[in-house]
Design goal:
about 80 residues; alpha+beta; elongated; two-stranded antiparallel sheet
Length: about 80
């Protein structure tokens, strides 16, 4: 079995609004939505990768960075593919 062809991950971001009855320092729901949907804000995902360098004859570690911006009119889907070579 090849682990690379059978691996999958899914990330979901849930927003749970603050309850003013429990915490008196809560933003209003609309303020929270406006903040998250602001074009100035984004969500980052860092993926740690290891790649073999044939020149150096060793694995080198690095990171792939993806940025996501939110929009109430869009569904966001992104795919990162691992390729064995």
């Amino acid at each position: 079995m090849n682990a690379l062809t059978n691996m999958s991950s899914e990330f979901t971001l849930y927003v749970d609004f603050c309850n003013n009855l429990i915490n008196s320092n809560c933003a209003l729901e609309q303020e929270t939505i406006d903040f998250i949907m602001s074009p100035l804000n984004y969500f980052q995902v860092y993926t740690k990768i290891r790649q073999y360098s044939s020149d150096k004859r060793r694995f080198e570690e690095g990171y792939k960075l993806e940025y996501f911006r939110f929009d109430t009119k869009l569904v966001i889907y992104s795919r990162i593919s691992l390729i064995k070579s």
